[in-house]
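Listing S7. Sequence submitted for prediction.
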Amino acid sequence: MTTVGVAEITEAGGGGAVHQRHGSAPRAMAWLRTHDPGLAALRRAGRTALIMPAMFALGDKVIGNPTVATFAAFGSFAMLLLVDFPGPIRDRLRAQTALAVVSGLLVCVATLASQTTWLAAAAMALVAFAVLFAGVVSSALAGATTTLLLSFILPVSLPGPASSIPDRLAGWGLASAASIVAIAVLWPAPVRNPLRAAAISACRVLAARLRVEVGYVLGRGSGWSEADHDAAIEHADTAFRLLDAVFFATPYRPSGLSTSARAVVRLVDELKWLNAVVAQAAPRPGGHAAGTPACAVKSAAAHVLERSADLLDKPGGRDELHAALADLRGALIELEQTTTRALVISPASSVDAAGREAGMSQVISAMDPSFRAQELSFVVSAIADTVDLAAAAEQRGWLDQLLGRLPTRTSGGTLSAARRGAAAHVEPHSVWLHNSLRGAAGLGLAVLVADLTGVQHAFWVVFGTLAVLRSSALNTGQNVLRGLLGTVAGFVVGAVLVTLVGTDTMLLWLLLPPAVLLAGLAPAAVSFAAGQAAFTLTLLILFNILAPAGWSVGLVRIEDVALGSGVSLLVGLLFWPRGAGAALGRALAEAYVDSAEYLARAVEFGVDRCDGGVPNRPPPTDAAIRAAASSRRLDDTFRSYLAERGAKRARLADVTALITGEAGLRLAGDAVLDLWQRDDPAGGDRAAARRELLESTALMTGWYGGFATSLTGPGQVPEPLMRDRLADERLVDAVRGDLLSAEGQATATAVRVIWTGDHLDAARRLQRSLAGPARVAVGLRG
């Protein structure tokens, strides 16, 4: 689910190669690099091991206030170990400062609500839902979810009067100030994004492949050969295999992705779709007349991909990318004009049936290179827009990033952007909404149970709930078992240690930093259970320093964690127990239905314009918004699915094929809409062309509707539609009858009609790549 527990707080957010020199690195460090790529967990754990004991000592020994000491210790833990903001150091410090202010306010509110049982439980549920759901509109808030929750859990679980607020704020403030300094000076984290690097490489190799194809088709220079073309294909395939490997190896939490990082994740889908489009356009030397302008479009597309890679590699000025996009648009306009001038179709009255069929094949063959170039140009433009969005997002001010405000090139301000982001998930099947409600119910119930049962340390009950609550009953149950086993192990070790140490608190002080280091590092490098064991050991030491009570503190912790785990298991069983795996099928079905409907609406928009039926018909903005919202929910559900522990029943390659296909279907709708929005087509009677396109559209939407039903219901995955040669012939006949001059010269509208039909045919061809993975997924579900 959206919340993460102690077991996941130190998982690394980036990749990093394991660098070993023979005999130069200790075996332990080599093992650690393997289990903690980039040493991100070690960095956070090391900082916490230094700062947490120092702040605890300041509050306990220097200030002499147990409340200040407790909040300083747990505040350090929360501010250094449970959150790790990405980006440049300046942005991290700003985000950390904002987090300190917000969490301080939550400490005050929680303290005021802590004195009444029902108010404490209700406030915990409301705050938990608000914090969890806020990740929809702000990646900065999503990344700090656990810290924000802990800043409320601690004070609301320790009832205290309003007069205790200054001491609590002092302790939390000390921890916050120390965390800001530590992030700036103690082993600052480098900016690392392996997925971004793989996407940059994919952009460059696709650009190189397009340039080789252009040279191969046009026969420029002796260096262009079939071997060069085959080598370019192999390089592209290798780059995309790497992209897949990095994508699956990256830890995808269902929260915490910034706008730019989310754009890079979307970019992966678009690049995969572009690779498929490029692969379908097999170049042939000496093609039709459209070959030269089509190659110009490909060259311009390659230039756009190169500039996109440059901007991803070194974010900064976006003017070069915008100029490359303008060149691509100009090449596309020239392609359309050249295709229109070159397309001559014999009038129906001048040919017999055999001649019409031959003419149909000739027209389709002649139009194919230009359509492929047009399709490719649109996907490349979408990629450039995504890269531009990522760059613009990184150039936002820190306050805009914190509030989730989209870059200025998008419409609306902060409030409207937040409203759009939230609206996409205020929907019955939204996994994010499910996780937010589940977390709110679990934490609110934990506060209520802890207060009613009168346990000694209510905080441990609530934190135990937070630590093990996951997105499915199965995962929650597994984490309950791991958490209890780890807690028992930590208790045994701690009990032995405390018994041996006795009342020698000086030795406990010396043991505290290593224990904190282990508690921070073990979850990422070893296991969830190991992390719970180390955390239990840390708490035993901490509370025995404050008030020596021996091993009994650990026994209380086991009881309280068991109680909190039971609350988590109950909530997991009651609220959407099947988790993201079951929700993924529904999300896929909704996304395919909405994307197919969007493509259908885009075609209807085009035929109305070409037929003059509704000349002022507005574009299908509502359908585009629904498709985009469904796609975003699918993205979040997929990341939740990846974040769930345990083996996946379906192969990730099959799942990603289905997700990439949805992106391609939605892009087809964007392409058709863009095709008809450029200028006003000439009026006139286009009834036959309209009829053929609408009939093809109905077949397309019908298939995807059945396909979506098979993903969630009892039906079988439908067989992919076969190409209807008669429909192709009827479309050409419709163009021949409606959209030709007396001399058989086609109009620009005729070209758009045929290209629209080609986009529908591309949606049909896509079905072949979807049917197999869908059948595997449906079979596993049964």
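Caption to Listing S7: primary sequence and predicted structure tokens for the chain studied. The CA atoms of residues 485 and 529 lie 6 Å apart. The chain has a mean pLDDT of 76.
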